[in-house]
Each structure stands twice: as structure tokens, then as C-alpha cells.
Amino acid sequence: MTDPQALNREFAKYDQVQKAHTYRLAEHDSDEFDEDYEIATLDFARFLHGNEAERAGFADDFAQALGEIGFAILTGHGVEAALYDEIHDRVLDVFTSTSLEEKMRFRARRHGSVNQGYFPIEETSDIHPDLVEGWVWCRRAFDIPQHREVPFNAADYWPRPDDEPHFRRLVLAHEALFKPIAQAIFQGLGVDPHVYDRRLTATNFGLRLNYYPPMTRDQDASGAGRLLGHEDVDLLTILPATEVEGLQVWNHLSRKWVRLNAPRGSIIINTGDYLQRISNDRLPSTTHRVGKPGNSSHLTAPRVSFPMAVYVWEDEQLEVLSGLGDPKYPPIKAIAFHTRSTSKFYGDDYAVTA
Fold first, then answer.
1. In angstroms, how far is CA 112 from the centroid of its own chain?
2. Would you give the DSSP letter of residue 25?
3. I need a surface site. Which of 127, 350, 352, 353 has the fewest CB within 10 A?
4. What is the pLDDT of residues 150-208, one digit of tens each?
5. % of the chain exceeding 90 in pLDDT
């Protein structure tokens, strides 16, 4: 595990899309924050329920926001805030009432391109001592239609199988948004809105539960961050607004960090490496991290988040979409793209070369 003050450029050889900027993996006293920039908040109901002109207007606004900073906040998406409140409490319960011995029975290991299972604190990746516990479940961990027929047994994935139906409600609510969100993005880019409909039908995903326990004084002084600066290796990520602040986003224009605080019940959308590649760099896979909240609550209160990363299946080809200029990148199979990128977190032997 590397120094908490390490720079991202030390791991640039793993990047599968262009990422030219330099940043420290963890928050530092010398970091500058852009206090004036506001990440766009958009009403998704304009696209879900609007007429042709309203849908086109939303798509343009959405693509512009993502093209500028890679993040946007959506309201009007149709998922009840009460579900997010319930899941918040269940995430707390999963981490605080399950023994470490039981958690370690589900220690993370690779299932295709997704590293699924439990990540102990300071072991989210091999490159930084993040002060977070994580737990990732992909499609096969839920009793829902599968890409390939496999027998489902909740006890294979869940320390308490009765938890699966509750988190399944969140998965199904977000899965219903995969195609509309992608369609709006593609329409805003000026390409066929339905170009990924097939790929996003019963596609794979990673639901990640994050539990950030209160930091000790020693941890606070160590230079380690709650979650290292990184870019998501996926098509897009759906993140319900969190109760405790901490999410920070890199602004490519000002070269400063932006503190993102989204309203209750909203979802935060950010573009990942897959989308940067197929959009021919039109949509950046933007660096983000979790730092300390401004009110110092990290010393006394936990933080919870539950992002859902949207992938395509490993045998799909990632290629620049037609109509976006001369391709900067050749076609590549998703399994190779994904594992070459994430091998920086899990070691060089994680990459699939075929």
C-alpha cells in the first residue's frame, strides 16, 4: 500500500482513456476548492414524462452538464426518498451488526469484471489506505432475471439472506432508470438514443455499500482519506444523495475541487471510463473522492453511501459511437478494458488480456 500523499500519475499506465490531470489520492491542506461552481440539478421528469421538445431540452442540458464536469444531479426520477432512507439504515445495520469474522467469509473476489464481496477498512484497494468498509454485490447476488441461467441461493452472497429482498427493491428501482438515463445522454450527444438498449437489458451492475466509521484522532492526522480520488470504471454510476457530506469532484476548468451536496431524494449521476471511451472523450470520466465534511462530523458520526455502477457484459465490445468524429480509441472487449483499468487497484494479475 502506497503513501497517502501519492499522486495519481504513479498509476497512469493502467488508464484506458485519456486522463491528463494530476492530483493527490487523498485530501490535502493545500487543495483548492471552487466555492462558486454549482453542479447542475435537472428534473428528470422532463425526459420521463415530457413531450418531444421537453425530452430534447432535457437531453441537451444533461449532456452539457456531463460534458462539462462529468456529474449531474437528478430530481423527478420516480424513486421515493423513503426507500433511500430505509436503505441508509439497513446499510448501517449490515456493517455494525455483522461480526468481522462473518464479513470475512465473504471477502471480495473477482466474478468476471466485478470484484464482488466484502472489503475491510483500509483495503478497498491496494494503492491507498481508505478509511471505509465496502461491500459489493453484482447481478448474480439478487433473485432477479439473469444474463445466463444460474441457480440462485441468497446464502451464497448474503450473511443474512433476509437482507436480499430489501436491497433488491433498490436494485429494481435503479435498473428501471438504466435505459432512460442512457437514452437521454445519447440523445444529448446527437447519436441514436437507443444504441445501448440491448446492452442495458438485464445487464450487469455493482451495488456497493460504503460505511465510513467515525475517524480516530490518529486517522484524522494520518493523511489518509475516507475514499481515494478515482474515476469510475463503468458506463455510469447512480448515487442517491447522502445524509453526510464529503463527496468532492474535480473541476477540469478551474482545476479545483467542488464540494457536492445534493438534496434529499435526488440521485447523482456521473460518467465512467466506459462512457468516456465510447463518447470519444466528449464525456469525461471525472475524478472524485470522499473527504472530511466541513463540520468535522467525521470524528463523531459515520457516513453511508450506496452507489450503483452500471456495466455492460464482459463479452460486449466498447467502441466509439458513430457520428462522434474520428475514433480516438480502437474497439476493445469490455472484460479487457475493465480489468486492465482496475488492475491498478487489485494488482497486475487482475487484468484479462484475451
1. 18
2. S
3. 353
4. 789 999 999 999 999 999 999 999 999 999 999 999 999 999 999 999 999 999 999 99
5. 67
Q: How far apart, in whole angstroms, are the C-alpha atoms of residue 125 and residue 228?
A: 9
Lowest mean pLDDT across 84-98, 121-135, 200-214: 121-135
Query: What is the mean predicted confidence (pLDDT) over 45-68?
Result: 98
Tell me which residue of 66, 73, 69, 67 sits closest to 44, measured CA to CA.
73
**Helix and strand totals (H; E) in the chain:** 8, 16
Give the Cα separation of 272 and 232 in Å (integer).
5
Say how far apart CA 301 and CA 289 lie, in whole Å: 18
Provide the CB-side half-sphere exposure for 70 (13 A, CA): 30
Task: With CA atoms as reference, report the closest residue to 184 among 275, 309, 308, 317.
Answer: 275
Nearest in space to 68 (alpha carbons), one of 323, 249, 223, 234: 249
**CA gap 351, 330 in Å, rounded:** 18
As a whole number, mean pLDDT of residues 268-281 equals 97
